[in-house]
Amino acid sequence: MVSPVPPTYDSVRVRVPAKINLALKVGPRRRDGFHPLATVYHAVSLFDEVTVNRAPPGRFSITVTGEGAASVPRDDSNLALRAARLLATSFTDESVAGARIEIAKQIPVAGGLAGGSADGAASLVGCSMLWDLDLSPEQLRRVAALLGSDVPFAMLGGTAMGSGRGEEVMPALARGTFHWVLGFAHQGLSTPAVYRRFDELNPRPAVPRVPVALMEALRAGDPEALGAALDNDLQPAALDLQPKLGRTLSAGLELGAVGAVVSGSGPTIAFLAGDENAAVDLAVALSSEGLCRSVRRATGPVPGARPI
């Protein structure tokens, strides 16, 4: 855990990365509505920045700028706001802690990149420092798990295996740096809708297990082997709901990607390039095809939520 900022500080700014799922294996729907997952998270260099500022006791507010700002909720359904309130009630007294939260977004909304979860993780890190709580990483992770499946990984970053509904994370060995081209779709996808379609397409899904070949490729730092092992059980459902994504996938592979996968519940597609030069060429070529709203290059793995 980073050293706490002295309580005389009036604000803390935290940078937090997007994630892609290198593998996302999905089991049968549980009674609580969640699906058991076996996933491999990978944090990439596309970042939101969250600034938490001192506010009067008991006062919490949020403003959002940047990518998709108009689509981000400003009420208690916003994970950054919920994170601040939960931290206050868990470790202080909400009547004596307050925060004014500012989110500068680059991670697309409803893009399968866990942008909302990333903002929740950044809010936890920032508020714990702003209020000088001196919490251990494990204490923060327990709060993060209450907020959502992807929040604990957004705090951890790097490359990690996820289980449970995704909230149980364990660091995984990944050698070297991987070069990605992210293709952003013209419209988002609802995660619940994708899972509903998955259930319709897979009435009896198998027990989820992370592919062995993918873990071996990560340990070897081999992009071609990793590209061949990328695997997402939600991908057929996402392609069914947005058929244009299939054309984008095919185009990226034809233009030289060594692998491609819909990230999470989509609709962002992560294309893996063989090296940096190949990623530059792929990004230019994919942009010229006009199939994506926009294209961004990124590298991974990168650290999770960190103050800057």
From TrEMBL:
Q: Where is the active site?
A: K19, D150
Q: Which InterPro entries does this one have?
A: GHMP_kinase_C_dom, GHMP_kinase_C_sf, GHMP_kinase_N_dom, IspE, Ribosomal_Su5_D2-typ_SF, Ribsml_uS5_D2-typ_fold_subgr
Q: Which reaction does it catalyse?
A: 4-CDP-2-C-methyl-D-erythritol + ATP = 4-CDP-2-C-methyl-D-erythritol 2-phosphate + ADP + H(+)
Q: What is its EC number?
A: 2.7.1.148
Q: Which residues form the GHMP kinase N-terminal domain?
A: 78-158
Residues in domain GHMP kinase C-terminal? 214-289
- Could you confirm whether the keyword ATP-binding appears in this record? yes
- Listed GO MF terms: kinase activity
Binding positions (ATP): P108, V109, A110, G111, G112, L113, A114, G115, G116, S117, A118
Name the Pfam families for this protein: GHMP_kinases_C, GHMP_kinases_N
Q: What class of enzyme is it?
A: transferase
Pathway of this protein? Isoprenoid biosynthesis; isopentenyl diphosphate biosynthesis via DXP pathway; isopentenyl diphosphate from 1-deoxy-D-xylulose 5-phosphate: step 3/6
The answer to whether UniProt assigns keyword ATP-binding to this entry is yes
Q: What keywords would UniProt list here?
A: ATP-binding, Isoprene biosynthesis, Kinase, Nucleotide-binding, Transferase
- Spell out where the chain crosses the membrane: none
From which residue to which does any coiled coil extend? none
Task: Tell me the protein family, please.
Answer: Belongs to the GHMP kinase family. IspE subfamily.
Fetch the PANTHER family from UniProt.
Answer: 4-DIPHOSPHOCYTIDYL-2-C-METHYL-D-ERYTHRITOL KINASE, CHLOROPLASTIC
Q: What does this protein's UniProt record list under function?
A: Catalyzes the phosphorylation of the position 2 hydroxy group of 4-diphosphocytidyl-2C-methyl-D-erythritol.
This one is known as 4-diphosphocytidyl-2-C-methyl-D-erythritol kinase
